[in-house]
């Protein structure tokens, strides 16, 4: 073999070795490919690959193929899955303090929530995962959940009385519905459309994109903007995976997670607007609660704060104060 050929072979071999990742890691996402959180996950994987020079490859598994969120959290704890985006509802079972962020009518607006999450209170929550075998990386947006109904608009607290409202399998959500005077009916997400159609349930609650993409607007055309919950979601890493990574790689991953979160938030806002315009054009009746009426809804659920957050009164007060400070400006 001539010297030139030998050198060429070695160069090709070195190049191939340089492109082999040191780590190939998994990412679990239960939403569809086109959903904002899934697109955020792909952006995260892309940024990590770029900034580690291809040394860390993250493979995103969308559509719930790695299991439901609770299963994924359990897999994260022993490193069976390396990264995931999860909702706070199942996560609060592992980190109870997160219940604070799920309380109804906690925020006055989207801006209020992000001011809280991007400040010292949000950092405090991020740092409360000790002992859980989970590492919090960044917050993702999931919008606000609102009520929608089939027979009549919900314009006041009195309109909630006697309604059968679909809820997730969540004690906190069931208590919220009862506090507002309606009857909670835990129902699988896939059965909500037929439940509204047949009258088994009178209404449900969800964000704009879910209301539109599931076509629930076809059988429940009254949508009330009450924003009873505005719950963020979290990107997580598995502690066993985290422990394997160098400080440099951890730093890059954290930066990429924060950058992907900003990207996801923009996608979410755009998707929300598209969904809202779509259902309005489809003839849905959208009701916005007056400030006075919204205050009545908040008062109705106030006792729940004592039940769920008696150990975190100081955090609740700090969140409320941040909202008042914003309103004063």
Describe the overall structure:
The protein is α/β, with parallel strands linked by helices and 329 residues long. It has two domains: 12-94 and 132-141 and 232-275, D-Maltodextrin-Binding Protein, domain 2 (3-Layer(aba) Sandwich), CATH 3.40.190; 145-230 and 281-328, D-Maltodextrin-Binding Protein, domain 2. The protein has 13 helices and eleven strands. The strands form three sheets. A five-stranded mixed sheet has the order 2-1-3-10-4, with helices on both faces. A four-stranded mixed sheet has the order 8-5-9-11. The radius of gyration is 23 Å and the shape is globular. Mean pLDDT is 92; it is low at 1-7.
The pLDDT mean sits at: 92
What is the terminal-to-terminal distance?
78 Å
Task: Could you tell me the CATH topology label of the largest domain.
Answer: D-Maltodextrin-Binding Protein, domain 2
CATH superfamily (homologous) name of the largest domain: Bacterial extracellular solute-binding protein, family 7
Oligomeric form of this entry?
A: single chain
Q: What's the short version?
A:
The protein has 329 residues and is α/β, with parallel strands linked by helices.
Name some characteristics of this structure:
D-Maltodextrin-Binding Protein, domain 2, alpha/beta, 5-stranded mixed sheet, 329 residues, disordered N terminus, 18% strand, 4-stranded mixed sheet
């Amino acid at each position: 073999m001539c010297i030139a050929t030998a050198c060429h072979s070695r160069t090709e071999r070195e190049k191939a070795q340089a492109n082999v990742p040191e780590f190939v890691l998994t990412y679990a996402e239960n939403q569809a490919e086109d959903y904002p959180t899934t697109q955020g996950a792909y952006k995260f994987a892309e940024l990590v690959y770029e900034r580690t020079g291809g040394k860390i490859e993250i493979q995103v598994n969308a559509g719930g193929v790695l299991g439901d969120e609770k299963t994924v959290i359990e897999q994260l704890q022993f490193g069976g899955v390396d990264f995931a985006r999860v909702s706070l509802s199942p996560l609060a079972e592992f980190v109870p303090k997160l219940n604070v962020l799920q309380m109804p009518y906690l925020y006055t607006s989207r801006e209020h929530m992000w001011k809280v999450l991007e400040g010292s209170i949000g950092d405090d929550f991020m740092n409360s995962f000790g002992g859980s075998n989970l590492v919090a990386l960044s917050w993702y947006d999931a919008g606000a959940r609102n009520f929608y109904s089939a027979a009549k608009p919900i314009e006041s607290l009195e309109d909630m009385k006697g309604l059968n409202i679909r809820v997730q399998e969540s004690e906190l959500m069931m208590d919220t519905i009862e506090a507002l005077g309606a009857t909670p009916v835990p129902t699988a997400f896939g059965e909500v459309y037929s439940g509204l159609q047949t009258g088994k349930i009178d209404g449900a609650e969800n964000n704009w994109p879910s209301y539109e993409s599931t076509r629930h607007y076809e059988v429940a055309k009254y949508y009330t903007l009450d924003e009873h919950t505005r719950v963020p979601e979290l990107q997580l890493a598995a502690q066993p995976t985290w422990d394997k990574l160098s400080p440099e790689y951890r730093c890059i991953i954290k930066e990429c997670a924060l950058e992907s979160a900003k990207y996801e938030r923009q996608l979410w806002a755009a998707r929300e607007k598209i969904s809202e315009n779509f259902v309005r054009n489809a003839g849905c009746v959208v009701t916005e609660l007056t400030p006075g009426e919204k205050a009545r809804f908040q008062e109705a659920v106030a006792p729940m704060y004592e039940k769920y957050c008696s150990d975190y009164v100081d955090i609740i007060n700090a969140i409320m104060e941040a909202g008042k400070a914003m309103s004063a400006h």
